[in-house]
Write a structure and sequence with these properties.
heterodimer; A: 111 residues; mainly beta; 5-stranded mixed beta sheet; 4-stranded antiparallel beta sheet; 0% helix; B: 117 residues; 7-stranded mixed beta sheet; 52% strand
């Protein structure tokens, strides 16, 4: 699976959009970009995933560049409860492909 | 739907003792994973099951760790004997591959926090 690079930490003001970047320059054509987050003392939570098109769900939007070498997770209106470690993961499709976690980005939403 | 259930929530043991963790995945999820998360790090995959068969156990320290999923439903992870460096949160996750290959992502349990003293 391709490796990813994320900033170790970011801050965001409550109510503003949080934009979390991820670089995955070695991604291959059949690999998806997944985002998970982990709130303190909980297991990771699935947020969103995509292949090459931008995706949106009730939690977030995922913007993938045309060359697929980077992506951005957008939380449109961050709340204090969005404070968590956010993991960007690249993996093949299907349930038999494992998720390999890096250190992620600690997003702190400030009041 | 009910989530992934794990027990116990916390466990403290002395080094060289044995310990077991239990996981009940979401009903119908064929794939089950055990992860180890050391403080300050991302989760690391220990073992992956597809139904009751092992798909990947390349990072499982097999001299002391074992896992089973006998009936393809719930699973146990055992450590015998435990070492100080086994102190971590042990996370169980399950996943479902839907029709047409639609991937709904992993669902994780809350984990078991193990402290080895």
């Amino acid at each position: 699976d391709a490796k990813t690079t994320q900033p170790p930490s970011m801050d965001c003001a409550e109510g503003r959009a949080a934009n979390l970047p991820c670089n995955h320059s070695t991604i291959s054509g059949n690999e998806y970009v997944y985002w998970y987050r982990q709130i303190h003392s909980q297991g990771p939570q699935y947020i969103i995933h995509g292949l090459k098109n931008n995706e949106t769900n009730e939690m977030a939007s995922l913007i993938i560049t045309e060359d697929r070498k980077s992506s951005t997770l957008i939380l449109p209106h961050a709340t204090l409860r969005d404070t968590a470690v956010y993991y960007c993961i690249v993996r093949g499709g299907g349930s038999n492909y494992k998720l390999t976690f890096g250190k992620g980005t600690l997003l702190t939403v400030n009041p | 739907e009910a989530g992934v259930a794990q027990s116990p929530r916390y466990k403290i043991i002395e080094k060289r003792q044995s310990v077991a963790f239990w996981c009940n995945p979401i009903s119908g999820h064929a794939t089950l994973y055990w992860y180890q998360q050391i403080l300050g790090q991302g989760p690391k995959l220990l073992i992956q099951f597809q139904n009751n068969g092992v798909v990947d156990d390349s990072q499982l320290p097999k001299d002391r760790f074992s896992a089973e999923r006998l009936k393809g439903v719930d699973s146990t992870l055992k450590i015998q004997p435990a070492k100080l460096e086994d102190s971590a949160v042990y996370l169980c996750a399950s996943s479902l591959l839907g029709r047409g290959g639609m991937d709904y992502g992993y669902t994780f349990g809350s984990g078991t926090r193990l402290t080895v003293v």
